[in-house]
Amino acid sequence: MSGATYAAAGVDIEAGDRAVELMKEWVAKTRRPEVLGGIGGFAGLFDASALKAYDRPLLATSTDGVGTKVAIAQRMDRHDTIGRDLVGMVVDDLVVCGAEPLFMTDYIATGKVVPEVIAGIVKGIAEGCVLAGCALVGGETAEHPGLLKPGEYDVAGAGTGVVEADKVLGAERVREGDVLVAMASSGAHSNGYSLLRHVFFDVAGWELDRDVPEFGRTLGEELLEPTRIYSLDCLALIEAAEVHAISHITGGGVAANIARIIPAGLEARLDRGTWTPPAVFGTVGALGGVATLELEKTLNMGVGMVAVLPAASVDPALALLNARGLPSWVCGEVVASEGAVTVGGAKGGDGAASLHGDYAG
């Protein structure tokens, strides 16, 4: 009688090794000059001597996942886009303080390692890192039989960036009279998928292969649309114009995330009439009977980033962003708070933000 083995317990080391071999070419595409060595070491190495050019470099760090959007990727058996969502969630939390993303690491937990699936996930992460201008310096793939089923996985990542101390963006720079410039999202990004899945699958009974004329594609294709990555656009904006603060519109919606970058005594007033949310938001509202305020507390409603700038910077900012292929528009202004009903910073912050009027179109 043979003894117990790791493989018999559900962990396939050889499959993990094969996954590493398949992902190497994609990781190599993210390489920056500061990166030392390749994947396979116990830690990724990044040459910090590049920071000597800064007077007072501040390191920024962020970590995140993509939530239940992974369930859509698994149901569709398409795994090469979810990594871009992961990168977007991490690096765009770095750039809002003005930091340039330098490198990322990832973590993938799965019930059973299927090398091609893991390589597909890492391919997406690598493509996202290229879009963000940062390196993928390492990661971990863990097989968790008994905790996750075969075919199930979750992903998480962490990133590090750098910003000059006197160039950090934030609420302390925001002034009354500043203007809010919205940058379009590519769709639902990676937030609110528990609500989306509940409405589309449980309430409406739709299938992922359902063709939806309003979307111009299937439901699955709409829901799996990768998160737009704004890092290089925002860095270019910061270089070309005066920017006081930037808000990444993630969980909690537009108002709650903008409130995080507004100082006490001021309020960001947004005009819904300046944009038309993509069809997916109106559709989920209509199918599920979801009130507009509930949608706005959960989803980005078509806005992925919002920059706060002085009025003199607005025209050059819009010209730059739209020239880079990023649809952008003035969506509101910063005013003195008058005690109106507003949304405070649910995730922190002392300011407030409010949405007014009806959406265009």
TrEMBL record:
<dbReference type="Pfam" id="PF00586">
    <property type="entry name" value="AIRS"/>
</dbReference>
<feature type="domain" description="PurM-like C-terminal">
    <location>
        <begin position="175"/>
        <end position="340"/>
    </location>
</feature>
<keyword id="KW-0067">ATP-binding</keyword>
<keyword id="KW-0963">Cytoplasm</keyword>
<dbReference type="GO" id="GO:0004637">
    <property type="term" value="F:phosphoribosylamine-glycine ligase activity"/>
</dbReference>
<dbReference type="InterPro" id="IPR036676">
    <property type="entry name" value="PurM-like_C_sf"/>
</dbReference>
<dbReference type="InterPro" id="IPR016188">
    <property type="entry name" value="PurM-like_N"/>
</dbReference>
<dbReference type="GO" id="GO:0005829">
    <property type="term" value="C:cytosol"/>
</dbReference>
<dbReference type="GO" id="GO:0004641">
    <property type="term" value="F:phosphoribosylformylglycinamidine cyclo-ligase activity"/>
</dbReference>
<dbReference type="GO" id="GO:0046084">
    <property type="term" value="P:adenine biosynthetic process"/>
</dbReference>
<dbReference type="Pfam" id="PF02769">
    <property type="entry name" value="AIRS_C"/>
</dbReference>
<comment type="similarity">
    <text>Belongs to the AIR synthase family.</text>
</comment>
<dbReference type="InterPro" id="IPR036921">
    <property type="entry name" value="PurM-like_N_sf"/>
</dbReference>
<protein>
    <recommendedName>
        <fullName>Phosphoribosylformylglycinamidine cyclo-ligase</fullName>
        <ecNumber>6.3.3.1</ecNumber>
    </recommendedName>
</protein>
<keyword id="KW-0658">Purine biosynthesis</keyword>
<keyword id="KW-0547">Nucleotide-binding</keyword>
<keyword id="KW-0436">Ligase</keyword>
<dbReference type="InterPro" id="IPR010918">
    <property type="entry name" value="PurM-like_C_dom"/>
</dbReference>
<dbReference type="GO" id="GO:0006189">
    <property type="term" value="P:'de novo' IMP biosynthetic process"/>
</dbReference>
<feature type="domain" description="PurM-like N-terminal">
    <location>
        <begin position="47"/>
        <end position="163"/>
    </location>
</feature>
<dbReference type="InterPro" id="IPR004733">
    <property type="entry name" value="PurM_cligase"/>
</dbReference>
<dbReference type="GO" id="GO:0005524">
    <property type="term" value="F:ATP binding"/>
</dbReference>
<comment type="pathway">
    <text>Purine metabolism; IMP biosynthesis via de novo pathway; 5-amino-1-(5-phospho-D-ribosyl)imidazole from N(2)-formyl-N(1)-(5-phospho-D-ribosyl)glycinamide: step 2/2.</text>
</comment>
